[in-house]
Amino acid sequence: MAKTDKAEEKAGAGQEQNDASQADSKKQAQAAEFSEAVESEAGVAGGSIDILLDMNVPVTVAIGQTEIPVRRLLQLGPGSVVKLDKAIDAPADLYLRDTKFASGDVVVVDGWFAVRIKEILGVGQTESAEPVAAAQA
C-alpha cells in the first residue's frame, strides 16, 4: 500500500510541474525601465585592455580548396593527391575565426611552415568564408 501512495505522490508532483510550466507559458512579458548609463573615466583607465592584448587567438591559413564527390572522398588514402583551386604562386588566405584578414606567401622557417604577410585587409575589405583546406598557423 505504501508503494501505491508513493507512486500517486510522484504522479501528482509531475502534474503540478506540468501545470506550473503551462502557467509560465501563459505569463505576459512586461516592459522594463532602465536608467541612463553614465560614462566614467575610471572605467576606461581601471579596465585595462592589457589582458586582451596577451590572449592567443587561433589563426587559420588556407592554401586552397576544392569540391569532390563523396565517392572520390571515400577512395582517398595514403598517397592520394587532391588538386586545389589555387596556383602555387597564389597567396594563401589568413583567417581569424571565419573572417579573412590578410594574405601572404607560404614559406619555410627552421623546418616549419610559416606565412610572410603580403597584405592586411582593411575593415571594408574583409571576407567571411569557411576555409576548407586549412592548417593552423
What quaternary form is this? Answer: single chain
> What is the terminal separation in angstroms?
69 Å
Q: What low-confidence regions span 5 or more consecutive residues with pLDDT below 50?
A: 130-137
Query: Tell me about the biggest sheet?
Result: 6 strands, antiparallel
Specify the CATH class of the domain at 57-136. Answer: Mainly Beta
What is the percent of helical residues? 25-40%
Number of strands: 6
| CATH architecture call of the domain at 57-136 | Roll
CA radius of gyration: 29 Å
Mean pLDDT: 79
Helix count?
Answer: 4
Derived structural class = alpha+beta
CATH topology (level 3) name of the domain at 57-136: Surface presentation of antigens (SPOA)
Shape by Cα distribution: extended
Offer a quick outline of the entry.
This protein is α+β, with helices and mostly antiparallel strands.
Verbal overview:
The chain has 137 residues and is an alpha+beta fold. The protein has a domain of 80 residues: Surface presentation of antigens (SPOA) (Roll), CATH 2.30.330. The protein has four helices and six strands. Strands 1, 2, 3, 4, 5 and 6 form a six-stranded antiparallel β-sheet that branches. The longest helix has 25 residues. The protein is extended.
